[in-house]
Amino acid sequence: MKENYLFSPKLSQKFSCSVPLKGTLQQFVINGKVQGEDKPFSLYLPQEKEMEDILQLISVRTSEVFRPIYSKKSFSASKDKEEKLELNLSSEYFFDNNSSARILLCSHTFSLDRFVTNENVSITLKEGASAEFIVMQNEHNKATHNTVFNVNIAEKAKLKMVFISLHGGVISNTLNVNMNGELAECDLSGLYLTDSKQMMTTKIDLNHLKPKCKSNQLFKGILDDYGVAKFYGRIIVSPDAQKTEAFQANHNLLISNNAKAYTRPQLEIYADDVKCSHGATIGRLNDLELFYMRTRGIPLYEARLLQQMAFAYEVLENISNEELKSRMQSLVERRMRGEFANCRNCSKNCC
Questions:
Q1: Is residue 7 included in any domain, yes or no?
Q2: Residue 56: pLDDT band with limits 50, 70, 90
Q3: Which residues pair with residue 146 across a beta bridge?
Q4: What is the mean pLDDT of the chain?
Q5: Residues 6+ apart with CB under 8 A from 69
Q6: Does residue 11 sit within a domain?
């Protein structure tokens, strides 16, 4: 691995992603390969290194680059959008002792092909390191994206991850987190929005292996139409992990009668001096609150939107950069207003 976060040239195709902030370092990753280098992305941050700017990884799936790898038969079959184009991607992030960085991962599909993406992400934090990951997922309705995050956190290291899943046919995020050193901290949160027949799955295995570690999980979903969300969260506290503090919550808001949410939070505690809790809710918009807002002259549509934004804000609040938080809040509101409807057919200019 090497320290690899230099700006990469723009795509030759027209692509609009207005998430980047002023001063953000950017790197394009096309079908899993760093643009111009033909290899997976890896980041090694040396000891004591602090990245002042946010590093943005723009991961794009596009058949125009992908298809030449395949035979003429595959190329022909994919023209009618029935052929699945499968990609196996990987990336690695290594934060050495007392280093720190903020990473923005943006995932897009650039063409309408039936992409099936299987991705493995390795994140390692050594002693005293800190990292914040913002994962923004925005793909079209024919895309399937399965991501596995393997995370190892050493003594006194801190990790924060915020997932914003705006759009995608089938999205699955699996997190395997090992807290390997005393006083390690891990904060995981996520907001997922589904409509049409989209499916969202979140699986978490968080292992407290050493004493005096802290973890917090908060995942929220807003489901419309025939959207489906599944949450499986498990916290395991080993016998040696005394004085652990671990909390987990999953809340789902059903906007339509056809949307479905499944949730299964779990605790496995093998130590006797811990503070742990978990909980889950599935509910609908509050009719009394809607009535109150309507009596104040707020139209029903706007009142419903305000309730949804209030529900989502607790997750967005976990983004530390104020400008990025504001940008993500705007994207979420646009998504709720239906301005991403074109994502069902095209995702080139949706954010």
A1: no
A2: very high
A3: 118, 172
A4: 86
A5: none
A6: no
